[in-house]
Fold this protein.
Amino acid sequence: MIRARMWVFQNYGLLVAIAVFIGMFTLYISNHQAGLAVNVVTTAANKAVLLALVAMAQTIPVLTGGLDLSVGMVFVMANCLASAIVTGSPLQVALGIAGVLGAGLLAGFINGAIVVYGRLQPIITTLATGAIYYGIALWIRPVPGGFAARPDVDNVHETVADFMTYTVFNETVPTMLVLLFLVAVLIWIPFRRSVIGRGCYAIGSGGNAAYMSGVNVGRSRLAAYMLAGFLAALAGLLLTFVTYSGEASAPIGGTYTLNSIAAVVIGGTSLYGGAGTAIGSIFGAFILRTIDDLLFVFDLPPLWQPLFQGVVLLAAVSLGALRVFRIRNRLELFG
Amino acid sequence: MNAQTDSPPFWRMTGITKHYGGVTALSEVDFSCGRGKIHAILGENGAGKSTLIKIMAGVVEPSEGQMFLEGEEVRFSEPAEAPRKGIVSVFQELSLMPDLSVADNISISDPPGKWGFINARAQRRRAEELLARIGCEDVHPDELVKNLSLSRRQMVEIAKALGRDPSLLILDEATSALTASDVQKIYDLLGVLRNDNLAILYISHRMHEIEELADECSVFRNGRHVDTFTKGTRTDNEIVELMIGREYSHVFPDKPKHETPPAPALGIRNLSWDNTLDDISFDIGKGEIVGIGGLDGQGQRELLLALFGVLRGVSGTIEIDGKPASIPSPHAAKSKANRIALIPEDRKTEGLMLPMSVADNITLASLGSMTRGFVIDRSEEARRLDEMVRDIQIKVGKLSDPVSSLSGGNQQKVVIAKWLMTKARILLLNDPTRGIDVGTKQELYQLLRRLADEGTAILFYSTDYDELIGCCDRVEILYDGRVVRTLAGDEINERNIISGSLNIGADAAVNGSVTPKPA
């Protein structure tokens, strides 16, 4: 009982994010002509899962008290790379996928190595490397707007792409959601239970204390950025399956980076580090995506979209901060 | 006792020298200690104690010299190495991660589990066992450390150290944040560990602890190892003279006799807050030093915060010079109408902006009074800074140095200087001598009395009973958020404070059913 109460208290941000998402999604579904149809959910999932993965990527450096401004650019770079190399025979496709994910790991490794061994600040390091990764994306896909591949042209392996963007289990569950679930269960949860993952939380909560406790600080931080690169690349790979093309678009990269930070915060992770989870960020990303869908079903002028997004974002973040009003000792406001 | 006499000493270091830039922190120190003993290390701040133990713990590498563990030379290049050899330290600065749970913190160095994954259940069990060993069964292993009181955090810190299975345990001011009951638990534990043949190094500024615990004492002064002797072969005064190198007399300044009770400067009327403060009423007169006593966590800290406008939803009235005052924030508390100052509990987080300069810290609270238009008057600032630094003798190289470069005692002086700058007439202090050396403490007592004589009303919370007895004209004992006892004049003695703190009649303490905290 005590433990259950503590768990609720310690996961307040996550629970708020889940509740807000359920509320918004119910509103969306109840106002959608088709209701809770598989194809509605699948379309929503295909859009939301990409941001959810990038937000998960962002969560891990944030937990260490850092920030990764390059996740959006790694995402774009992986997209362009996938559109070039994930093609051909099943073996070539498999190798291509491994290559894209490996490129993400490498990008994360470079970020982490500069932060850990170069001792530069994460925010400026990843701003710079992000520009480099975008440069690589442009080099792979120099034409603005990317390579306009048609599905009938054998550019990206169609079968994989169709499978990924469609449904499984007798056409009831979107494949993307299954994949996100697998990432959460097979990557995030083991990470959180690992010594390296614990180290990330420890560094974010108190870097000196972690170092003095003999935590391998460098290893944990390096792993945090590598995992971020990996997850961002995975999202970029999936984008390729959704769009059948690669596009070196700076606005997309920038938007994903900023939205990933918003999703992390909405999901209850502290930007100071040390507290929060990537599961919260998933729901943070879902909330951000549902904002767009709500504007659509309520038939609001698309020109209002940024304004509404901002308002809803502020409202969501405020909900997460509601407990400030319960604080009776003002010193806790700053802790 | 199983002290080894024939074999080489358990721990030995020879010719240890450490330079920080041009400053020599330690100079050709030879030091050794053995198993089955509690070895106290004494010295003023800046005497080199911290550097010594940091070298032993592998946090700092010595510039010269050698270290031997059971006769074999050892070298530590990072903090993780010393504990692997059984040398575990509990530092004065807490080394806990506040956002992590108690169990996470205790096992952070080597979590139980396989293949790099942590077994949460085993970890919780381990935490429970260790907490039980130090008598802290009431701490839940899943609780986040940031939700614990300072005393409890320190106990978690000690549990964490024990979990690393030390053969040489170093405690640096380990009891300075503890409540009296936790202190007793630590005494008992150290006795057990000594019998388990551990070598224990104990650093403390509290003489009575050293008398209670130590077998051997080593005194450091100005980076040199001055003397080592068996406890009981030197008197307190001799020890203190070794430490500070000057005559040590009159720890506490004389208390003045008030013919008539002074006019109240601060009146507290029926103050209540949350479940922590319960209908508190008393006055503090101009020129009076009023102490708050009691076990830690009985609402003393909250009382000071309430008076300083930090708490929301306080009921009751606060009167200043007999008139009800409104204090909704610290900014209002320090305003011209109220002129209240608070020296907070934790100087590093609540008292100082550590990376900012000494000068910036001192003038921070009173910048409003040194402006010309919107611009800070630099020459006025410099003049008043100069005056203040001379007045309370802060030992500082340059005023532009970051305050983090000062020793603990001097940092506390900076905090006090900051509030003296505001010309406060009501001074609230929350355990201001925690972790500072004897010499600085003495200066502080004298400063408080001088301020009182100049008319300042002082409310002073201390966990050290000696201070309450030596400094205060009156002591209010808090228990469970209420004032249970008011002591004045000769009534302020250890027995009354302890019995009041435990909220029992004076008789119970006399017949020995209570173990008083040694003083």
Q: What stands out?
A: The interface with chain A takes residues 59, 79-80, 83, 91, 93-100, 104, 108-111, 113, 116-118, 120, 140, 142-144, 146, 160, 273-274, 302, 305, 310-313, 329, 350 of chain B (CB under 8 Å).
